[in-house]
Amino acid sequence: MTIRVLLVDDQDLVRAGFAMVLGSQSDLTVVGEAADGAAAVRLAREVPADVMVMDARMPGLDGVAATREICQAAERPGSSSSPRSTWTSTHSPLCGPGPVDSC
After folding, report:
1. What is the set of domains in the chain, with CATH numbers?
2. What is the CB neighbour count within 10 angstroms for residue 40?
3. Mean pLDDT of 35-63
4. What pLDDT does 56 receive?
5. What average pLDDT is seen over the chain?
6. Cα–Cα distance, 39 to 20 (Å, whole number)
7. 32: which residues sit within 8 A by CB, 6+ positions away?
8. pLDDT band, residue 36 (cuts 50/70/90)
9. Is the pLDDT at 1 greater than 80, yes or no?
10. What is the Cα 91 distance to its own chain's centre?
11. Is beta strand 28-34 parallel, antiparallel or unpaired with respect to 85-89?
12. What is the pLDDT of residue 82?
């Protein structure tokens, strides 16, 4: 089974690095990328994925708020598929080293 991954980060180099590392694994496939939280919400509606890796701190709609929207949309009747697990993380001492929010 291949795990389908969506990547979200406002920094192009970070996204490219994650895509390179994840793409090197035979059981992981990067199926989409976004540069901000609003695009992540749209992407989650449009692209079937199992996992979304998202930066917590981005301009506009941040990763935590985007994760909340994606999880709420997934709970609505008749909603299209969304990632089964959404992780937002940052290396900021304010947020800690691990997951900030997940659904």
Report:
1. 3-89 (3.40.50.2300)
2. 31
3. 91
4. 86
5. 81
6. 21
7. 6, 7, 43, 46, 47, 49
8. very high
9. yes
10. 16
11. unpaired
12. 60
